[in-house]
């Protein structure tokens, strides 16, 4: 009797196994570049805001931020242009534009920023349109201020410190030398009228200019602050922050807050008494953009006149011009 041919089955199985291994190898070789690329792209990906912040950041992850809409970028002499004029004419301020992030709330403002070749970011605004001038304390003005608060809280959560400045703040000197670099100071904020004590919470704070550190305490403050928006009908975000301060929120969060002397960080509410040391001038206590523009142009003229005469030892005391347009903006 003939014996059956037993080796056929193992040979067939080995052949099938080799073919399977070859197919797996070929498929892995085909897909591996795609997989590596996908992993690489995921690890290197940054969203638009992160890229904008990184591009404008100083070495210590500090950014200067201002927020504009179309009303601040159009007209014979737009507010944004006046703000940039201040940086151009100021002492030791031109290089600060390298760390300035212009946050636009509409497409026109964004395109204007890009045209000026600045660091630009277009803010998402929940579908609200903030392109036109928002009259002080109007419903749209209040909405825009809360959108701003939410955005700035996001910046803090990303680990960036920032100096926030309204666009109607003239930077006549580099303010960094007047801001404390002490890491224990969490927030340094401007005031309408300085009461003489930089640590006193009786100072009437103004959110138009402040420097803030990114840490758990400041992030918690912004979360609490923005969380009050639905319980604060008819109040702007600054009013709510003042209320939180008076309700001892700063103390509960263990925030160290410094209030900035108007001698150095002045405004139309209280002029600096010393033009030789003033860093910023804010068009506060003013109702309309047109009035701000008129009086800020006058500030620039005052500044240039001071600079022209500063070599004259007998020039006497400098006097700011009256802020007539802003005073009259409340009469309507």
TrEMBL record:
Q: Which superkingdom does the taxonomy of this entry point to?
A: Eukaryota
Flavoprotein as UniProt keyword: no
Q: Which UniProt keywords apply?
A: Signal
The reply on keyword Signal is yes
Q: Which residues form the signal peptide?
A: 1-28
* Domain spans labelled Nucleotide-diphospho-sugar transferase: 96-296
Spell out the InterPro entries in the cross-references: At1g28695/At4g15970-like, Nucl-diP-sugar_transferase
Name of the molecule in the record: Nucleotide-diphospho-sugar transferase domain-containing protein
The organism's lineage is: Eukaryota, Viridiplantae, Streptophyta, Embryophyta, Tracheophyta
């Amino acid at each position: 009797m003939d014996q059956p041919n037993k080796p056929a089955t193992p040979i067939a199985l080995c052949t099938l196994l080799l073919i399977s291994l070859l197919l797996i190898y070929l498929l892995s070789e085909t897909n591996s570049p795609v997989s590596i690329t996908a992993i690489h792209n995921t690890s290197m990906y940054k969203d638009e805001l992160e890229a904008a912040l990184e591009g404008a950041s100083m070495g210590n992850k500090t950014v200067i931020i201002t927020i504009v809409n179309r009303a601040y970028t159009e007209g014979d002499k737009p507010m944004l242009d006046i703000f940039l004029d201040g940086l151009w004419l100021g002492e030791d301020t031109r290089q600060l534009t390298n760390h300035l992030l212009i946050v636009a709330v509409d497409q026109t403002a964004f395109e204007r920023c890009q045209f000026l070749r600045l660091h630009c970011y277009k803010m998402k605004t929940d579908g609200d349109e903030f392109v036109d001038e928002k009259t002080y304390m109007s419903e749209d003005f209040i909405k825009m201020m809360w959108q701003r608060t939410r955005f700035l809280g996001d910046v803090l959560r990303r680990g960036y410190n920032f100096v926030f400045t309204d666009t109607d703040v003239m930077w006549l000197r580099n303010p960094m030398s007047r801001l404390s670099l002490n890491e224990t100071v969490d927030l340094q904020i401007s005031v309408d009228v300085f009461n003489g004590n930089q640590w006193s919470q009786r100072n009437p704070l103004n959110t138009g200019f402040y420097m803030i550190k990114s840490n758990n305490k400041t992030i918690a403050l912004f979360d609490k602050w923005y969380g009050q928006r639905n319980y604060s009908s008819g109040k702007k975000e600054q009013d709510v922050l003042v209320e939180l301060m008076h309700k001892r929120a700063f103390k509960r969060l263990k925030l160290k807050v410094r209030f900035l002397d108007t001698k150095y960080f002045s405004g139309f509410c209280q002029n600096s008494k010393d033009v030789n040391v003033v860093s910023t001038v804010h068009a506060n206590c003013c109702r309309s953009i047109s009035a701000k523009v008129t009086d800020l142009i006058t500030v620039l003229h005052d500044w240039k006149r001071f600079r022209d005469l500063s070599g004259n030892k007998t020039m006497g005391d400098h006097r700011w011009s009256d802020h007539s347009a802003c005073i009259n903006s409340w009469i309507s």
